[in-house]
Each structure stands twice: as structure tokens, then as C-alpha cells.
Amino acid sequence: MEFDNYKGKKFCNNTSFFVDDNLTVEKPLQITINNQTFSITMRTPGHDEDLVRGLLYTEDIYRGEENLPIQFTDNIEKNTSNANVVINEALLGLGYKNSRNLLSISSCGICGQKELADTSQYTSITDIKEDVLDIKTFYKMVDVMRKRQPTFHQSGGSHAAAVFSEDNILLCAREDIGRHNAVDKVIGFLINNKKIKKAKCIIVSGRISYEIVSKIFAAKIPILGAVSAPSTLSVDFAKELGVTLLGFCRENKATCYSHPQRIKN
Fold first, then answer.
1. Which H or E element spans position 81?
2. Which of 89, 116, 143 finishes a domain?
3. Among 78, 96, 127, 221, which lies 20 to 30 A Cα-Cα from 169?
4. Between the CA of residue 122 and those of 102, 188, 220, what are the distances in Å?
5. Predicted TM-score of the model (pTM)
6. Residue pLDDT tens, the chain, 265 long
């Protein structure tokens, strides 16, 4: 992960003073598929291979389990990077065929989409996984995620996602300036390391949007928690898709908004 030092002027009550602050780096990554531009995402550099792999999976570009050849190049003059992915065209999913060639902003990966996904085509996770999680264990998971945020502790400007196994063991934790990027990085790691089926619970910093729920559902992770609030649409989707959604997960507190049968106290 990356952060950089910037000077600033801090106002406090009736006084002001200059400070040196660590700020989270945000840079563009252009993703091309078979040398054709697909998307530009604003992200925090680091674990870019996981980010690209996770994005391709959650956007239904490529859902295969094989590792993909990804070539990274940097344009120092423009301060940009490019990731070219080679995928057999016969294996490209509907997400590519409906490609929107969007500018994916770090705080809102849904920007540029014309319509939300139709949930009627999906199978509810309640038909697949009915894992139960003790609330005290869940509180400990939240604490584990907090301790795995070195960039946030340095800059205060990044988000995190942490995923845990059926045995409540941390599988992966990632940071990024964008919430959805952090989630994509975690899911990409799970896919690349053949651990996607072991995932039971994922916890994210910040709030929960519709897109976060859709990504969790794509990975078939049954339990989703967030430090901050969910949106109304995210709760509606979680209810319909069978995802157990918990918000305001901090200080040994949490509010469950959908499928509480997976949580016990």
C-alpha cells in the first residue's frame, strides 16, 4: 500500500498551525482485455493483480478458476499504469459483452452503469450456505480487521476488507482508497489461491452500498459486516439474495438487517 506526505494548515478552535499529514495515494489503473480498453479504475497501488482478478470475477468478465496472464506497464510521464489481461474470447462472460467502458471512481464503482442487476436470475445464498456465527466471534473479527489497516493508521484515508474462513480464521485482508476496490482485492486473492469456497464472513470498513452486496453475493460469501451504515438498497438486495448483513459493527455492537438466523449470541 502507498501513502505520501503533504503539508497542510490545520484550524483548531481560534488557532491554526501547519502540519505534515500522510495521505493515501490515488492513481488510475487502465484495464485492457486482449489489448482493448475495458475500464479505468482509480485505486491505491498495491496488490493490483488481485484487484484486476477480483474485478473480472465480480463483474462477470471471467469466472474461470485458471490464473490469467496479466501484463503491467507504467507510463511515468502520465503517472498512470496499464494492466492488459489475455482471455480466450470464448470464455468471456456477460459482463464483458455488456461492457460499459466506464471510469470507475474509487468511492463509487457503480458509476456509469445504466441499470442495476436483475436479482430474479440469481439463486439465494440461503439455498447454498446456512453457516452460523457466534456474535462474540464476530466482534473479534472486526478487531482483527482494524489491526490489519496499516495505511489507514498512517493516513486515515483508506478502506479495508477482511475475509474469514468457516473456522473463523483470517484468509486475507486488503486496503484501498475505495471500498469496492478493497473487496475486489480480497476476492481476487481468494480466487487466485483457490480459497473462494472457504470464505464464510467478510467485514469492510465504511458503509455498505448495493455494489458491495452484489460483489459478496457473486463470491457466495454468506455473512457481510461493516463498520458504518448500510444503504436501504443494500439491505433490500441482501434480503433478496440471502446475505446476512450487519451494520454499525464497532465497540462490540452490531445491527443485523437481513437473515439474522446465521448469527447467534
1. strand 80-85
2. 116
3. 127
4. 24, 21, 11
5. 0.77
6. 578 888 888 777 677 888 888 878 878 899 999 999 888 888 889 999 999 999 999 989 999 988 899 999 998 887 789 999 999 999 999 888 766 554 455 555 444 343 444 555 556 776 656 678 999 999 999 999 999 999 999 998 899 999 999 999 999 999 999 989 999 999 999 999 999 999 999 999 988 888 899 999 999 999 999 999 898 878 888 989 999 999 999 999 999 999 989 998 8
In a domain, 110, yes or no: yes
Contact yes or no for 43/108 (Cβ under 8 A): no
Please report where in the chains the cell 496499516 appears, as a residue: 150
Check: CB of residue 245 under 8 Å from CB of residue 230. yes
- The CATH number given to whatever domain includes residue 205 is 3.40.140.10
Helix (H, G, I), strand (E, B), or coil: what is residue 211?
helix
Domain boundary among 96, 116, 136: 116
Q: Which of 108, 201, 249, 256 is catalytic?
A: 108
State which amino acid sits at residue 177.
Answer: I
Tell me, yes or no, whether 240 and 111 share the same domain.
no
Q: How far is CA 152 from CA 155, 159, 184, 202, in A?
A: 5, 7, 18, 18
- How far CA 140 is from CA of 132, 134, 147, 164, 170, in Å, comes to 15, 10, 11, 11, 11
DSSP label of 101 = -
Q: Is 256 labeled as catalytic in the residue annotation?
A: no
Domain count, the chain: 2
Residue span of the structural domain in which 81 resides: 27-116
